[in-house]
Amino acid sequence: MLEVAMIKDMTVFVRAAKGKAFAPSYLGGRLPLSSNLGQFLREKLSGALNPKASEKELKFLHPLLANQEERSHIPEENEFLVELIKNREGYHLFMYPFEGRLVHEVMAALIAYRISKLAPISFSMAMNDYGFELFSDKEIPLNEDNLGRILTRDNLMNDVISSINAAEMARRKFRDIAVISGMVVQNFPGQQRSNKSLQSSAGLIFKVLEDYDPNHFLVRQAYTEVFNAQLQEQRLVEAFKRIEKSKIILKFANTFTPLSFPIKVDSLRQTLSSEDLDSRIQKLIQQAKKVK
After folding, report:
1. Could you give the 3-state DSSP secondary structure of residue 240?
2. Same-domain pairing of 160 and 179
3. Based on the domain organization, do 138 and 263 belong to the same domain?
4. Domain of 49?
């Protein structure tokens, strides 16, 4: 039984543990969905209120799903649900692609960028495996007329690059490429270089190559790995293909729905407050009951 003593560079130093050992636990919702599992969830959710549904999980969730249908809508397989919620905090936009957290991180930044081109506005973002939230203190300029343009597949990757700092992500990814290719040396005899030193050397090489030889195959490799691994390019394109073929359902509400509530709770974990999380969740529940 070991315990962590310290972390230096990429090495974890451990020692024999004394006393009682604690098993680590992790937020299960942060494990990203695969594309196949996302498709399976959309299929199951589509028929969730069907009286013939035999799965015990769906029967257990029936009251919650019925609440979702009453307050908003449960999307069918060929539908894409968008919720606009206005409350005392401000304006909330929720979308439910069911594509997993990794894809939703990129989609949230992309949708925020496209909306910001309609009117000056600032957003905070939160997401889980089912959907994502864009929150603003200003009214979000989104309606049935412009929603199709916001969710279009046209100019997709160019807008993604504009919504994030792809060059910085590629520069960080280039460090591993530079080490493997031998452009930078990770170890000297009897000495290991620090991560900061490696990143500095690799970053300098990346900048020179990008400025004077932008088509260098290692620079292209860095961008390729960013698009495939971090930006989930293929899954993102497939998701927007599916959304374009789907019927867009836009719903308005004055309080959080069962689908939006977990995303909102996830955003509470990332905000600074003197109240504990349970107290803040109870406040949201009481507000929802009052509105109902």
Report:
1. helix
2. no
3. yes
4. 32-164+241-291
How many other CB atoms are there within 10 angstroms of residue 135's CB atom? 20
Residue 10 lies in a domain: no
Examine the domain organization and report whether 182 and 138 are in the same domain: no
In a shared domain, residues 141 and 272 = yes
**Over 60: is that where the pLDDT of 219 sits?**
yes
Say yes or no to pLDDT of 26 above 80. Answer: no
Note whether 231 and 160 are within 8 A (CB). yes
Question: In 186-242, which ranges are E strands?
Answer: 187-188, 191-192
Give 188-204 pLDDT, tens digit per residue. 666 777 777 888 888 89
Question: Does 105 map to a domain?
Answer: yes
Confidence of residue 29 (pLDDT cuts 50, 70, 90): very low
| Geometric angle at alpha carbon 38, from 35 and 44, rounded to 5° | 145
Residues 69/71/75/76 CA torsion (nearest 10 deg)? 30
Last residue of a domain, one of 230, 253, 280: 230
Residues 267 and 143 in one domain: yes
Q: Specify the DSSP element, H or E, that contains 125.
A: strand 124-127
pLDDT, average across residues 275-283: 67
Q: Residue 190 to residues 22, 52, 61, 186: CA-CA distances in angstroms?
A: 36, 69, 60, 12
Cβ within 8 Å of residue 275, ≥6 positions away: none
- Cite the beta strand spans of 28-99 per DSSP E: 79-86, 91-95
User: In angstroms, rounded to a whole number, what is the distance separating the alpha carbons of residues 24 and 12?
Assistant: 17
Domain identity same for 38 and 134: yes
Number of domains the chain is built from: 2
Tens-place pLDDT, residues 56-100: 888 888 888 899 999 899 999 899 999 999 988 889 999 999 998
Q: Are residues 64 and 175 in the same domain?
A: no
Sign of CA dihedral 54, 56, 57, 62: positive
Q: What mean pLDDT, rounded, does the chain reach? A: 84
